[in-house]
Write a structure and sequence with these properties.
The complex is a heterodimer.
Chain A lengths: L6 H13 L6 H29 L2 E4 L10 E4 L1 H24 L2 H4 L3 H17 L3 H20 L4 H32 L4 H7 L6 H19 L8 H6 L3 H25 L5 H25 L3 H21 L3 H32 L15 H15 L6 H14 L3 H26 L11 H23 L1 H16 L1 H9 L2
Helix pairs in contact in A: 1-2, 1-5, 2-3, 3-5, 3-11, 3-14, 3-18, 3-19, 5-6, 6-7, 6-11, 7-9, 8-20, 9-11, 11-13, 11-14, 12-13, 12-17, 13-14, 13-16, 13-17, 14-15, 14-16, 14-18, 14-19, 15-17, 15-18, 16-17, 19-20
Chain B lengths: L5 H24 L7 H18 L2 H7 L4 H21 L9 E6 L3 E6 L1 H25 L2
Antiparallel strand pairs in B: 1-2
Classes of the chains: A mainly alpha, B mainly alpha.
Chain lengths: ~500, ~140
């Protein structure tokens, strides 16, 4: 099957189109949406085993020869991300059935989620920089629909900001692509990786590389371009927020990782140095936000920004430890962020508020929920043997082996602040004087808690079984560090 | 004050058909010459919008009882199905097939699988454009 790489993109698209035919039939919407995600997950698993056994899978659309047609490339890195994003979407879907509300479900919520999935999986798979733009637009369109979905007042206010920021960054993206094309004459990523080292005008390429950093930085929420994120992500309901927090910024991070390892490597002394500095500033800025707020949603939202910084710092080191650490941490972060948002979502449902100061004493009524939260919190901070640990360890090691030992020190120090920020939620919400809680029936609670708990359990498996997953991670790192594997797969059919 | 729109309405009744015919022409002109499903769809949508301007939305809904969201979905499905046919033949996605046929009246004609894809695009464009315009128009 030469088209296997496309299955995780096409399947959600087909299911989304089918779902648009009968928006009002609630039961059918849920069933078909779940069927869609499960089928996508199955196809992603098959693709994963194929990539694992046969190496990089590349297909160039329309049977055009490689640099001219649009290539779709599934290497271990991209397939790992496709797999984790599909898993996250699946659990968020299970979580949104009891929480999102019938009205939203009947106005194209599920098609929007599946379209988002098409865009995300497409962005992870594409091997063409303009096609990357197209898929990012697909996922942005779906995210515009999701962020205003329901039309509450804060959603409408924040969606205007979100729209403006993204339209500006998309316009910049097209200009950056145009600059790149005028200098290199190609947009196929593998072909770019061949052509860029032959071009002597390093100056203009460096400018283009930084321009791409700005463009992807808007999506990934790096310092100082993250200003739109805390407000916009705060507005939509928790299931949508979990999807956004786990997937959308990661597409930007992925794009930076891909472009900065595959072809923008002509002037690493400048571009990667810049990336390292920005990454550290991003971590610091995120920490300030995570500690400043008493709102559980805001705390986790600022933790997204911290994680982006940590991942980008690893990639800026360009050595095996740093890159593998970044990949591991990226996969970990998608799972743990989704899990944390869902946990915090349950908290806000129970207390009826997201303000920490109005919470307390929950451990008596919900002990299992409390300890699950603590495990997820420790996982986020990277306490061994949980999933945050191996990634962070490798990133820190990468920093010490590279030239930025001070960055590693910052990451180590800020890990404590991350821990503080999430343990604060635990202390306020679960300890102390019991606050007034809403009575929610057992079945409703379990329908929210079970998917969340499974997701947390998955992160524990990822952390405790890190030894099992490391071969895949180092495979993925191998392709990033050794672009010729990627280039050969695309250009030599 | 009620405006006198006899002129507009009378002209629209003729012009709509001219636009629709032109849309069909542009649609089939695609592939080798400028045109195709996207422009054809936009022209068709503009014809319907002209009708809505000259008359009013309820009247047009009565003569064209189309659910544009469903139209979009059907268009999407046709487009994906055409592209996915390549999966069955195990050639790269979006690979198209074409051949020349001797058709009565038309003579030697080249038929493309891309035409099916374009029908999908056409339906999506009409569906999306009309959904947007109707949503904005009805808000008043």
């Amino acid at each position: 099957m030469s088209n296997l790489a496309l299955f995780p993109i096409v399947i959600p698209l087909i299911f989304a189109a089918i779902l648009m035919l009968f928006p009002k039939k609630l039961h059918m919407q849920r069933t078909v949406a779940i069927a869609g995600v499960v089928t996508t997950l199955a196809s992603a698993l098959i693709l994963f085993s194929k990539v694992n056994s046969d190496g990089v899978q590349a297909v160039t659309l329309g049977s055009w020869p490689a640099p001219f047609g649009i290539s779709m490339v599934s290497d271990m890195f991209s397939v790992l991300l496709v797999l984790s994003s599909t898993i996250v979407t699946m659990f968020v879907l299970f979580y949104s059935i009891p929480t999102i509300g019938v009205k939203r479900e009947q106005s194209f919520y599920y098609p929007a989620v599946l379209f988002l999935m098409t865009g995300v999986n497409g962005a992870f798979t594409t091997g063409d920089i303009f096609n990357l733009f197209v898929f990012i637009e697909v996922l942005l369109m779906a995210s515009y629909a999701l962020i205003v979905h329901g039309g509450e007042k804060p959603q409408l206010r924040e969606s205007i900001k979100y729209l403006l920021v993204n339209i500006i960054s998309s316009a910049l993206f097209v200009s950056a692509v145009a600059y790149l094309y005028s200098v290199t004459g190609t947009l196929n990523m593998a072909d770019l990786a061949v052509k860029i080292p032959q071009i002597e005008a390093v100056g203009i390429l460096t400018v283009i590389a930084v321009l791409f950093l700005v463009v992807f930085g808007f999506k990934a929420a790096i310092f100082p371009l993250y200003f739109w994120l805390p407000g916009s992500y705060f507005a939509p309901p928790m299931a949508i927020l979990a999807l956004f927090g786990a997937l959308l910024t990661k597409v930007g991070v992925y794009a930076i990782m891909r472009t900065y390892t595959l072809f923008f490597t002509m002037n690493t002394g400048f571009t990667h140095e810049l990336l390292a500095i920005i990454a550290i500033l991003t971590i610091l800025a995120g920490c300030v936000g995570a500690l400043a707020y008493f709102d559980v949603k805001k705390i986790i939202i600022y933790n997204i920004i911290i994680a982006v910084g940590v991942i980008l710092f690893g990639i800026s080191q360009m050595n095996a430890a740093g890159v593998e650490g970044s990949i591991f941490y990226l996969v970990h972060d998608m799972l743990i962020k989704a899990a944390l948002f869902l946990l915090v979502g349950i908290l806000t449902v129970i207390f009826g508020t997201s303000d920490l100061r109005k919470m307390g004493g929950l451990i008596k009524n919900y002990p299992v929920f409390g300890w699950t939260f603590l495990v997820a919190a420790f996982g986020l901070a990277g306490i061994p043997p949980l999933s945050g640990f191996p990634g962070k360890l490798l990133i820190v090691q990468g920093g010490f082996e590279g030239t930025h030992f001070w960055g590693s020190l910052v990451i180590l120090a800020t890990s404590l602040l991350v821990l503080l920020s999430v343990v604060r939620i635990f202390i306020y919400a679960f300890w102390g004087e019991p606050a007034r809680i809403k009575t929610i029936n057992r079945k409703h609670y379990l329908s929210m808690f079970v998917p969340t708990a499974i997701l947390v359990a998955l992160t524990v498996v990822l952390g405790a079984g890190a030894e099992l997953f490391m071969p895949f991670i180092s495979d993925a790192g191998e392709v990033l560090l050794n672009p010729s594997l990627y280039i050969d797969a695309v250009l030599k059919e | 004050m009620r405006t006198n729109d006899v002129m507009l309405q009378t002209a629209t009744k003729v012009v709509t058909f001219i636009i629709l015919m032109f849309a069909v022409h542009i649609f089939f002109a695609g592939h080798y010459t400028p045109g195709g499903g996207f422009v054809g769809g936009l022209l068709t949508a503009s014809a319907i919008v002209l009708l809505m301007l000259a008359f009013d939305i309820p009247t047009i809904k009565k003569i064209l009882p189309i659910n544009y969201v469903v139209l979009t979905a059907v268009g999407l499905l046709i487009a994906i199905a055409t592209a996915s046919a390549s999966i069955i033949f195990d050639v790269p996605f979006f690979t198209h097939a074409y051949d020349y046929f001797d058709l009565p009246l038309f003579g030697k004609t080249s038929l493309h699988s891309a035409l099916l894809f374009d029908i999908g695009v056409y339906l999506v464009v009409v569906g999306v454009t009309m959904t947007i315009i109707q949503t904005i128009g009805e808000d008043e």
